[in-house]
Amino acid sequence: MSLNDPQWGNRGNDDGGGRRPNQGPPDLEQLWRDLNRRLSGIFDRKRGGGDRGGDGGDQRPPVQFNPKFLGGGIGLLLVLVVVVWLASGFYIVDAGQRGLVLQFGRYKESSDPGLRWRLPYPVQSHELVNIAGVRTLEVGYRGTERNKVLKEALMLTDDENIINIQFAVQYILKDPVDYVFANRNPDEAVMQVAETAIRQIVGKNKMDFVLYEGREQVAVNASQLMQEILDRYKTGILISKVTMQNAQPPEQVQAAFDDAVKASQDRARLKNEGQAYANDVIPRAQGTAARLYEEAEGYKQRVIANAEGDASRFSQINTEYAKAPEVTRSRMYLDTMQQVYSNTSKVLVDTKGQGNLLYLPLDKLIQGAGALAASPVGGAGSPEIAATVRSSPAIANEVPPQIADRNEPRSRDTLRQRDRESR
């Protein structure tokens, strides 16, 4: 076989046809078939010598290797391989995704949605991360609430009661770089953080608060605590919502818990009834107490005013008494008798003086006595009172003669004479 044969690779087919040197590169399929045939001939010569079968049959032509032809075919093949290799660097990033470009396994850059290109493998590679999709994590159950996972759902409260809690966590990605490279398994980290946060919050509250009054508050606090822990570990995850699916005591103590709930409801009902009764009675009692207090205050003010008035009147009378004792004494006596007789309905008649039949208009006398009591100018000096005083021997003895005979001329003269003597 001659390797320097210029016609190697340019020979025709087995039918005797040929190809001229100036017709361009040969066909790739024909080149491959010729190469296989010549290689087979080489290996046959090494195994069996120059004759095949030993009967002087057809002998294959010697292989003539042409370096020029081999270099042109391999170069074209290499160019095709390089083009395919470079084309493998194109990739598409969909909307809602981010592309992470890795150079020799290390993060290099991020790419936005669209048609992107990177250096082909193994120089660079890429990963697509969905940052717009909402991911859901179930704690305490799987699929439905009946499919419980007691290892995750049973928790201990602050008052040492066991409750069964099932909740769901929804989260999205806010930093795809931290999500991919900062943690080995970020989704499992979210699961552990959710269970840790809810156990911490339930352990600090009582059972009634977790089951009834504070279910929404427990969910909000759990969301905040989970976000703090995830940010501390740089997971690149944003908690969007924590939903409480179910919260109840274990099935083994459900009946006793129902009885306790009924008792609690009865207690609340009785408490409300008592509060309603108190709201009805207390305002009325407070009103009555306020009224009695005001009446007592008014009575106190009235008594004080009367006492002050009596004291002032006594002071004035004392002053006048010091100036004219006899006149003041007589005036006080007449005022007192006026008050006494104005409040009585008795009529005194002197039957020893005259025996004539007397006509007494009692109704008019009573009305006149009332009018005299109401009149400030009326007094013991009026004719009716004077006649009454004269008609009663007992009263006539008690009344000073200068007052009893005040309307008579002799009594006036006697009173004037005594006044002169006293001077």
Distance between the termini: 193 Å
Estimated structural class: alpha+beta
- What is the strand tally? 11
Helix content: 40-55%
Question: What is the C-alpha radius of gyration, as a whole number of Å?
Answer: 66 Å
- Beta-strand percentage range: 15-25%
Give an overview in words.
Helix content is 54%, strand content 16%. The protein is α+β, with helices and mostly antiparallel strands and 423 residues long. Strands 6, 9, 10 and 11 form a four-stranded antiparallel beta sheet that branches. The chain has a three-stranded antiparallel beta sheet with strand order 3-2-5. A hairpin with a 2-residue loop joins β2 and β3.
What are the SSEs and their pairings?
Elements: H1 28-48, H2 67-87, E1 90-93, E2 97-103, E3 106-111, E4 114-117, E5 124-130, E6 135-139, E7 141-142, E8 144-148, H3 150-153, E9 154-156, E10 162-173, H4 176-181, H5 186-203, H6 207-213, H7 215-232, E11 237-248, H8 254-323, H9 325-342, H10 362-374, H11 383-391, H12 393-398, H13 401-404, H14 409-422
Antiparallel strand pairs: 1-4, 2-3, 2-5, 6-10, 7-8, 9-10, 10-11
Helix pairs in contact: 5-7, 6-7, 8-9, 9-10
Brief rundown of the structure:
Helix content is 54%, strand content 16%.
Keywords summarizing the entry:
single chain; disordered N terminus; 3-stranded antiparallel β-sheet; 423 residues
